[in-house]
Hints:
By secondary structure, the protein is an all-alpha fold. The protein has helices spanning 17-28, 34-47, 52-58, 63-83, 89-97. The protein is globular.
Amino acid sequence: MKTPLFRIVENSVRLSDEKRVLLQQVSDNPAALLGVRRRAQALLLLDAGGVLNEIAAAVQMDRRTLAALIQRYRQGGVRTALLGQKSSLQRRNWLALSPMG
Length: 101
């Protein structure tokens, strides 16, 4: 059963140290697509306990997109959250080649 978007807890993402390092590298990587960098930044801010409205504004996402990102992270982890469930082999390989990926 899916969680309704309005019931998502604001700081509902908990990252391991390794995932935090990977997301920081992705968010700082100018070669990464802008959307991927924004999603990485959003996950980092959520892990830090940020408020949904503030995070959405900071990464230029609406609340629904941010809520969908949280659900993708919960269901499939970092790769699914950043790249989607049906990401291309090229994108998956790019993330796998990232340090600690």
